[in-house]
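Re: that backbone. C-alpha cells:
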C-alpha cells in the first residue's frame, strides 16, 4: 500500500487526533503558572459542527446529561454566529484535572459515536493578575495545541502567544504551523 501511495502522489496522511494529549493540560497549567503567572479560570469548552439527525442529537444530549449528573455546575450549550456548537464546562479553578476529564469525555463520546469529523477544537482558559486572557486550544484534527491570547477590540497578543509557546513546548505537542493558530473571537469561556 505504501508503494502505491508513493507512486500515485506520495501524499501523507494527516496526523490523527490523540485525545490523550488533553491529559497533559494539568501539567501545562502548573508550568504556565510558575513561568508566566497564568492560572486556570475553571472554564473549558469543546467546539464542533452539529450534525443533522436523531443519532447526533441523542449523542449530544447523552453527553450533556452525563456531565450534568455529577452534581457539579451544569454544562452550557450554545451556538456561535458561524453555526458551531460549544459545550462549556465549568469547575473550580483548582480542579483542572476534572475539567480536562470532562472535555475528554465530550470529545471521546462524539468520536466513539462516529462524529469525530465534526469535532473542531477544545479550549481551556487561563488568566493572570493583570487580567490578560490566554487559552490553550487543542486542534482535534491535528492532535496539537496552540496558545490564543485575545485582547479587547478583536486584537490578539502575539508576543504573549509566542512566549506561551516557548514555555509549553516541553509539556504539550504545540502546533508548529502558525497558520493554524486561528483566532477564536467570542469563544465561550474566554
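Recovered sequence:
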Amino acid at each position: 500500500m505504501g508503494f502505491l501511495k508513493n507512486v500515485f502522489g506520495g501524499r501523507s496522511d494527516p496526523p490523527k487526533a490523540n485525545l490523550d494529549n488533553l491529559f497533559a493540560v494539568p501539567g501545562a497549567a502548573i508550568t504556565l503558572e510558575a513561568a508566566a503567572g497564568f492560572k486556570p479560570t475553571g472554564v473549558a469548552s469543546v467546539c464542533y459542527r452539529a450534525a443533522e439527525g436523531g443519532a447526533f442529537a441523542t449523542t449530544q444530549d447523552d453527553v450533556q446529561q452525563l456531565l450534568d449528573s455529577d452534581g457539579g455546575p451544569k454544562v452550557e450549550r450554545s451556538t456561535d454566529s458561524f453555526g458551531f456548537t460549544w459545550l462549556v464546562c465549568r469547575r473550580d479553578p483548582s480542579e483542572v484535572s476534572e475539567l480536562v476529564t470532562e472535555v475528554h469525555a465530550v470529545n471521546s463520546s462524539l468520536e466513539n459515536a462516529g462524529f469525530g469529523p465534526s469535532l473542531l477544537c477544545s479550549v481551556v482558559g487561563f488568566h493572570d493578575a493583570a487580567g490578560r486572557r490566554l487559552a490553550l486550544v487543542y486542534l482535534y484534527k491535528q492532535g496539537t495545541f496552540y496558545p490564543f491570547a485575545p485582547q479587547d477590540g478583536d486584537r490578539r497578543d502575539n508576543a504573549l502567544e509566542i512566549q506561551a509557546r516557548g514555555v509549553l513546548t516541553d509539556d504539550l505537542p504545540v502546533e508548529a504551523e502558525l497558520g493554524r493558530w486561528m483566532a477564536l473571537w467570542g469563544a465561550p469561556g474566554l
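Residues 128 and 134 are 8 Å apart (CA to CA). The chain has one domain: 18-180.
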